[in-house]
């Protein structure tokens, strides 16, 4: 495939895998498609209470079979976007980048000096499902799902986690900025994002705020994670492209 169709993704010349690189001082970290070989690292991290106590999604304990299903689903989605980017569309020139409905890269990997790559996190952008919106939830979710790819009124949301060994170094802040400015805004036409974090999840809140997210309100939902932690209150934050 012509590399210009993937712009600004770079392509690993040895493996053909596309990636985004975080800016300095985090330029030893890249964001790539998921790989089936990520099972062990996913199992390790998604059993770490410093991560999963803040996430509503993953089963706990998180088993290799969970990782295999998750990775095969997200890999299929990523492969489908890459195939779409490579397909010829009538009237589409390589000078007008195609707008797509997903980001094909979301796995954060640390690259060691000897080239070894370690999965250290994930940042995924997807359509918002309007959890914590009470009675309006289904209607808003259905409306949002029905909007065509590229529609600037689609509301997006972001899910992320980082290996606890790497917390507090500015990595996810850099990853969010890279994802948004390099891919989501130019190649998905993302204009509105709604983020959610448990009220006491100050690190996540701060990551969003540093990119310009503003708190809308705190939903008074009580949420228990699969790891058994009960949180009182979910902070809803919005970002709008200026
Ligand atoms: C949320 C998470 C991805 C952040 O990743 P990270 O790379 O450690 O974040 P960064 O280092 O880029 O930024 C964290 C910011 O929060 C701040 N912070 C961290 N803990 C804090 C606390 N208890 N109170 C106030 N601020 C805090 C840091 O000081 C930093 O802000 P600064 O740059 O202004 O100093 C990571 O903590 C994580 O994986 N948490 C578990 C999973 C999770 O919560 N996912 C998000 C669900 S909504």
TrEMBL record:
InterPro entries: Acyl_CoA_acyltransferase, GNAT_dom
Residues in coiled coil: none
Region (Disordered): 1-22
Domain N-acetyltransferase, first and last residues per copy: 29-214
GO molecular function, one term: acyltransferase activity, transferring groups other than amino-acyl groups
One Pfam family matching this protein: Acetyltransf_3
Name of protein: N-acetyltransferase domain-containing protein
Species of the source: Daedalea quercina L-15889
């Amino acid at each position: 495939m012509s590399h210009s169709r993937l712009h600004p993704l770079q392509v690993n010349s040895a493996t053909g895998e596309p990636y985004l690189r975080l800016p300095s001082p985090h330029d030893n970290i890249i964001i790539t498609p998921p790989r089936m070989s990520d099972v062990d690292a996913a199992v390790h991290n998604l059993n770490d209470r410093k991560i999963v106590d803040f996430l509503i999604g993953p089963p706990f304990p998180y088993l290799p079979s969970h990782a295999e299903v998750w990775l095969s689903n997200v890999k299929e989605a990523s492969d489908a976007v890459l195939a779409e980017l490579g397909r010829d569309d009538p009237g589409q020139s390589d000078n007008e980048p195609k707008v797509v409905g997903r980001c094909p890269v979301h796995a954060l990997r640390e690259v060691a000096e000897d080239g070894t790559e370690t999965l250290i996190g994930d940042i995924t952008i997807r359509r918002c499902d309007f959890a914590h919106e009470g009675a309006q939830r289904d209607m808003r979710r259905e409306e949002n799902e029905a909007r065509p790819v590229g529609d600037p009124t689609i509301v997006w949301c972001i899910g992320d986690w980082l290996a606890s060994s790497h917390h507090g170094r500015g990595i996810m802040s850099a990853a969010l900025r890279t994802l948004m400015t390099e891919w989501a805004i130019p190649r998905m036409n993302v204009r509105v994002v709604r983020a959610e974090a448990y009220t006491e999840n100050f690190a996540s809140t701060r990551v969003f705020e540093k990119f310009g997210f503003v708190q809308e309100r705190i939903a008074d939902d009580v949420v228990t994670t699969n790891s058994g932690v009960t949180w009182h209150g979910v902070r809803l934050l919005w970002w709008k492209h200026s």
